[in-house]
Amino acid sequence: MAGGGHTTVIRRVLEKRAEKAPTEEGTTATVAVMVRVLPPPKALLVFSDSLLRQQIERHVTPDVLDAELLSDESEALRQLNAEFRPVVLTDSLEFIRRLRARTGSRAPFVVYVSELDEAGEREAGLDAGADECVGRRTSGREIVARIGSARRIAELETALRITLEENRQLSTTDELTRTASRRFFGKHFPREVERAARYGRALSLILCDIDHFKSINDTLGHPAGDQVLRHFGERLKVGLRHGVDWVARIGGEEFAVVTPESGYDAALEVARKLRSAVAQTPFKIADRFVQVTASFGVCGLDRVSAGERRLAERMLKIADQALYRSKGAGRDRVTATRLDQRSSPLAPHLAPARPAPAPPASAPPASARPAPVRPAVPLSPGPDHEDDVAQREPTRVMRVKRS
After folding, report:
1. 116 shares its domain with 235
2. Which tens digit of pLDDT belongs to each residue from 283-308?
3. 135 pairs with which residues across the strands?
4. Which structural domain range is residue 132 located in?
5. What distances in angstroms separate CA 158 from CA 78, 140, 144, one per listed residue?
6. Which of 101, 158, 287, 339 is deepest in the core (most CB within 10 A)?
7. Is 118 helix (H, G, I), strand (E, B) or coil?
8. Which of 128, 143, 172 is a domain's end point?
């Protein structure tokens, strides 16, 4: 490699490592904080030898382990099944074997305290499933060190489990509204479309947006706006089928409602009920009541056919257009689109061409005849054609007809 290529590559590798260093350092610092603020791990001390139990008990202070002493191994297993204890100290190889024989349970860190501090005893403990072995005649300082090691390992595992669970929740749940997150919607709405296509089922998408939300923030402040968002998400979830329909926050004040197994008519009815639920009762924000309304756009399919690419994107675009029409028509209303997969609602709808009739044999040449006056051929309604479906409610419907 000419021109100092190796040096350039090495420099880039070092630069990349330097870029990652702050992230790794930040993660380590975060875990250190979590470990520091965690309470002492809970532990079980299971000893049949009373003298040995007293000896170990002297070194297990409340600031090191939150320990409970038991002599009955069966009772100890029952308690572990009822409440997990991350650390177990015992002098029983049989208890360790029974503990490790459990299936589907978290494994605690097990310290085996042997009668003799010999290699054979330690091997027997490790073979039974112990993580650490210590002899009863070991110095008190070493026993304290072994217990401290068990505590640190248990704390690190707990911190990592909490971190993984919180990351999982943050990636799937919107922290403010406790609805599904935008990322969750992006991954799982296409899967809902695929499932509906696989079984030929109905599927609908409802988009909704809080009206004049910026003025709420400007007038009442952002904390009040956050409360409005929380209450709004709760009202959306109340009107849905538990375990079937789901809600996701996909923008600042914009939400998506996915209704599997629901065609156009059912989704339109759901949207109308949600609009009414939001508008009828004011939101209680701190010590005042705030009137809130929302606009809705619906894209409904009575049967999803297989084979259409990017149908999820198409549904999202159509529902968004319907929502935009609700906003433009005065807000606090529902605009719905019945989607037919055999026609594209985004393309112009043109009438089919009609062949011209053949002139009679005795007719003069076309150049000598005046052009006949024909009635205009009516075009099929385009995708912007809408009909009112309810005089008493601000609901509009856009029907996409077949070409």
Report:
1. no
2. 998 888 999 999 999 999 999 988 88
3. 114
4. 42-172
5. 22, 27, 21
6. 339
7. coil
8. 172
